[in-house]
Amino acid sequence: MSREPLTEMQAELLFRNLGAYVDVFQRLFPNVKNIGVCRNFVSNSGIMQKQLESAFTSMLQGVIGQNTRCFCSTSFRISARLARSLHEIPLYDLTLWYRGDSNVYNELIQRNAPSLRKLCIRDSALLDIVKLTLTQTGTMVYPQLRQLIIDSCSGLINLDHRQPSTNPFPALRRFLTALHLDFDMHLARMLDTWRLLELHTFRNLRSISVGSLGSDFERRVSGNKVFLWAVNASPVICSVSITGVKLKNFEQDVLQNVVFSRTLHELHMPRVFLPIKDSLRLIRGFENL
């Protein structure tokens, strides 16, 4: 579908054809498992835009079936009506770019919490992420979730508010094999509060990449702690990349606390400045680099 605004004639043709598309899809693909919506409709008219979205929502409702397990929406605004259709089936894989009412997205995710194995969220507010794990009755747990991707998350929250009473993602520690985090002070504090910056937090993690976001992070968060967590995050870690972290009192506060893993084969440290003698001591400690 072109991104150029639709004319009234084009929109009218689209309205007529959508119903036919649904009939064809249902006949040819009665057991659709994966559904992806990759682009939104654009109209010169606000009223026409709403009509287009409503018509396309009706089409999607006709395609969604009891065998649907994966739903991906990167541009299309999900209405409460469409979300209700997705409430009735157990989804395993859900990708959502937040558009419009965030409560609709949050409820859709929570209703599928028991079955979700992969969740990808983009353009959400940090408060929405918190809402996914905390409800009025307690902690929302995602027992099967093995892959969690949160991209372009913004906003601030008060971390003094109540915290989850239990780990909302118990399977992540068992199944997570790769992790990338760009730290700011809020994320670092949250992870520290939830005790995720401890030794061997992730038992099967093979690759980790961490970096810092801005000078505010460098002033308020210990680069030493982030460094130690990265190299000690897993007993089977193979690859570590640490970018832009400032280290202080390296020999006393860092080197003496490193657990030198024999599984580590790659160590990348761009924009991490160390004296040559400290760098050599660190490298020698990891036997299989």
Distance between the termini: 50 Å
Largest sheet: 5 strands, parallel
Q: Helices and strands, in N-to-C order?
A: HEHEHEHEHEEEHEHEHHEHEH
- What structural category arises from helix and sheet content? alpha/beta
Subunit organisation of the chains: single chain
* H/I helix tally: 11
Q: How are the strands of the largest sheet arranged?
A: 1-2-3-4-7
Compute the gyration radius: what is it? 23 Å
Helical content band:
25-40%
| Gross geometry | elongated
Mean of the pLDDT scores? 77
Uncertain parts? none
Strand content: 15-25%
The beta-strand count equals 11
Structure write-up:
By secondary structure, the protein is α/β, with parallel strands linked by helices. 38% of the residues lie in helices and 16% in strands. It has eleven helices and eleven strands. It has helices spanning 8-28, 46-63, 80-87, 102-111, 126-133, 170-175, 185-193, 214-220, 223-231, 250-254, 276-285; strands spanning 34-37, 70-73, 93-97, 118-122, 134-135, 138-139, 147-151, 178-183, 207-212, 239-243, 266-268. The strands form three sheets. A five-stranded parallel sheet has the order 1-2-3-4-7, with no helix packed on it. It has a four-stranded parallel sheet with strand order 8-9-10-11. Strand 1, helix 2 and strand 2 (70-73) form a beta-alpha-beta unit. Helix 1 (8-28) runs parallel beside helix 2 (46-63), helix 3 (80-87) packs parallel to helix 4 and helix 4 runs parallel beside helix 5.
